[in-house]
Amino acid sequence: MSQDSKVKTTESSPPAPSKTRKKLPVLDPSGDYYYWWLNTMVFPVMYNLIIIVCRACFPDLQHGYLLAWFVLDYTSDLLYLLDIIVRFHTGFLEQGILVVDKGRIASRYVRTWSFLFDLASLIPTDAVYVQLGPHIPTLRLNRFLRVPRLFEAFDRTETRTAYPNAFRISKLMLYIFVVIHWNSCLYFALSRYLGFGRDAWVYPDPARPGFERLRRQYLYSFYFSTLILTTVGDTPLPAREEEYLFMVGDFLLAVMGFATIMGSMSSVIYNMNTADAAFYPDHALVKKYMKLHHVNRRLERRVIDWYQHLQINKKMTNEVAILQHLPERLRAEVAVSVHLSTLSRVQIFQNCEASLLEELVLKLQPQTYSPGEYVCRKGDIGREMYIIREGQLAVVADDGVTQYAVLGAGLYFGEISIINIKGNMSGNRRTANIKSLGYSDLFCLSKEDLREVLSEYPQAQAVMEEKGREILLKLNKLDVNAEAAEIALQEATESRLRNLDQQLDDLQTKFARLLAELESSALKIAYRIERLEWQTREWPMPEDLTEADDEGEPGEGTSKDRGGRASQERPSGPE
């Protein structure tokens, strides 16, 4: 093989694959991965928060399980270290957009107090074990600085759980347990410092049978702390100053804890009542109204049963008010996910635009009818249509007993009455009596809401009218002649309207021409007047004539006056 062929072979050969280093992804702080990591961090934080103080105050616990504590300690330290790495790969929002630039994320994280606390919580204080021995767990107290992650995990869980009130109560009970646990550990440590069995207040002497066991020591201390912090009493009186100080501190802590518990429970109960008031109508006002107006007992019983049905079966009648704080688009998506399958069953709404159905879903009003209650009666003006979500309704005769048909879930009625179809023989009036057999849940769509939505979709309106016309033809309730006459009348009316529009346009054109001519004439007259003014200004005015006129006027007045006086002095003619 020649050297040229070798070169060509070398050039044509594919390049060797380069080893790419996988990069850790950036976590969304509101995503699932970050949420589950926070829940994972709950365990090492709770371990350090509960176990370290217990090991420090109960020496037997520290000495008996030393190897297990080493494994758990350094496992929690490893999770702490991984948590710092996760923090360096957790994005943040800037102007509503998630920042995924790791350089900016790291720069932002290292400037926060959280970074300092996280570093301080990982300071290897365990190295002092080499000099002081491995039985001093208090050297790991800096691990408590990671407690904010515990609170963050609880906050995220509270917003995600379907039972927030139950979670709040559970969280409160956990806090109470931690406080009593710490207090019991401090009580046992104080008893050991003062001397076991020295008086009735401290822990009994472990030399007594049964009190030397570790389980008994912890349970006795926990029980004693519970009695103090719950202010139940029945505790021995303190005998020393240290014991008095401990009791005073516990009493103050008990008062604060009692106030916290009462406030938290009141908040939970208030939230539960607020949620019930938002989901279900307030029946107390209706009861009071009926009592003031002396409504008969039978009708009052029906109203109370209706409210009871809503409460027991968790039925909601004010979905619009519940979702009103959501953005419009998000509210539409929630309503579509809940009700779109029900609306798409209606024949006249099939094959309609998806955007039209989404707007119609927001207009659906849930209604619940009691047993024996009429949804509509024959001859009523149809202003809404109904879709059966749950329950059974009967088409009955005028006597209310004879049943012609039974309508079940998924069916609908009254859809023709909300569409103005030409030639409809029923005249948009109900043609049957519909009665609820049991408790029935319906969706109501009013004519006004449908008209408001269809005003933006003229093609969909035409399609729906055509489908309604087909349904009326099948039911023999469409007068073709009346429809043709109405169509002809409508066409004639439209033709007249077009003629009137044309005539109005002609009049507007003529009026515009007259206005233009008037404006032109006005401009010409104004120009002529201005020209005459300039011409009159150029005419000569003799000054002597002006002076003569000015002098002559008083002279004439004098002669006149003299003449007047002369005429007065002149004697009259002979008599």
Question: How would you describe this structure to a colleague?
Answer:
Residues 558-568 have a biased composition (Basic and acidic residues). It catalyses: Na(+)(in) = Na(+)(out); Li(+)(in) = Li(+)(out); NH4(+)(in) = NH4(+)(out); Cs(+)(in) = Cs(+)(out). It is found in: Cell projection, Cilium membrane. One of its GO terms (biological process) is sensory perception of smell. The chain is α+β, with helices and mostly antiparallel strands and 575 residues long. Among the domains are: 24-160, no CATH class; 283-313, no CATH class; 319-478, Jelly Rolls (Sandwich). Helices cover 61% and strands 7% of the residues. The protein is built from 20 helices and ten strands. It has helices spanning 3-12, 32-57, 59-64, 66-88, 102-110, 113-121, 129-132, 147-160, 164-194, 214-229, 241-279, 283-292, 297-312, 319-322, 328-343, 354-361, 447-454, 458-474, 480-537, 543-569; strands spanning 92-94, 97-99, 365-369, 374-376, 384-390, 393-396, 403-407, 412-413, 433-436, 440-446. The strands form three sheets. It has a four-stranded antiparallel β-sheet. Helix 9 packs antiparallel against helix 11 and helix 15 (328-343) packs across helix 16 (354-361). The radius of gyration is 48 Å and the shape is elongated. Mean pLDDT is 80; it is low at 1-20 and 554-575.
